[in-house]
Amino acid sequence: MKSFSRRRNPVKPSWQLSESEVTPESLFHDRRALIKALGLGAIGASLPGSVHAGLFDVFSSKETSAFVREPLSFVKAPGFDGAGEVLTPEDKVISHNNFYEFGTSKSDPVANAQGLKVDPWLLSVEGLVDTPLQLDYDDLIKSFGLEERIYRLRCVEAWSMVIPWVGFPLAALLKKAGVKAGATHVAFETLFSPDEMPGQKSRLMGGGIHYPYVEGLTLAEAMNDLSLLSVGLYGKTLPPQNGAPVRLVVPWKYGFKSIKSIVKIRVTDKQPPTSWNQLAPHEYGFYANVNPDVDHPRWSQASERRIGPGGLFSASRIPTLPFNGYGEQVAGLYKGLDLKRYY
């Protein structure tokens, strides 16, 4: 059962979005209409199959999740107690996913991920830490105070949405482990289980990625309050196609940066490799900050199609904001860094 904080005159942090801005899932029914509305048909046709991230089936779905999700106990972030707000229906968000371990089509993860075993689970925190940790499923759900945060999501494919995540700050976990002096980066690794993840068995089905999927942040990025380890969405535990039982959410970066089904977090003194940068370094940099001034080599990032409450056909193209609108919280992390060179 949900629990909500009851505070008088709560102060709404500037990064928070209202539940009215959460993308309605009913807007995702018509794949062809969406692609036409996005203006990406010609672009998608030119993309190699191994790297186009399922662009043409970006919002098609024939199935919904059969995975049993459990309700989570969490507090709303200050300023959002749920009064008068109606959250988006869940069916499309849990049916349209980029998770190449289960296939490159948007409908592949929900079809192929239902057998993933998420309990038991073991997440290790290691490297340059005072106290290496091993967290099981219950630790992830119960050891840290859970809260709901509504974040914008900006996909590198130039569409965007808004999602209510449930989780806890990554910084809380790193502080529990204790970061040693000299550490500069944090590396992440997804589960490697080819018997459960068919995309890991086939280079073709898995989009050409060398598995396990890996990602990384600078230590300063990882310690920023916005960096979230999510264990749920829409008030319930994550389904496997969305990265159960624990995934990263970094809202000022393109969506591929938010690695799913994490089994290892390693604190290091070197910049770690990242999967999409390894696959196509001229297209996907280490930082992956949302930057409207840096185009993808095959399309503009200056604007995005926000899938909002007005319906599929009224989804409007809006300017993309630097850092996905979270510049107030994160721009200082990149002071003096050439963001066009370090994209």
TrEMBL record:
Reaction(s) catalysed (UniProt annotation): L-methionyl-[protein] + a quinone + H2O = L-methionyl-(R)-S-oxide-[protein] + a quinol; L-methionyl-[protein] + a quinone + H2O = L-methionyl-(S)-S-oxide-[protein] + a quinol
Claim: Lyase is one of the keywords in the record: no
Function in brief: Part of the MsrPQ system that repairs oxidized periplasmic proteins containing methionine sulfoxide residues (Met-O), using respiratory chain electrons. Thus protects these proteins from oxidative-stress damage caused by reactive species of oxygen and chlorine generated by the host defense mechanisms. MsrPQ is essential for the maintenance of envelope integrity under bleach stress, rescuing a wide series of structurally unrelated periplasmic proteins from methionine oxidation.
Alphabetically ordered keywords of this record: Metal-binding, Molybdenum, Oxidoreductase, Signal
Cofactors demanded by this protein: Mo-molybdopterin
UniProt subunit comment: Heterodimer of a catalytic subunit (MsrP) and a heme-binding subunit (MsrQ).
Family classification: Belongs to the MsrP family.
Protein known as: Protein-methionine-sulfoxide reductase catalytic subunit MsrP
A Pfam family assignment: Oxidored_molyb
EC number: 1.8.5.-
Lineage top rank: taxon: Bacteria
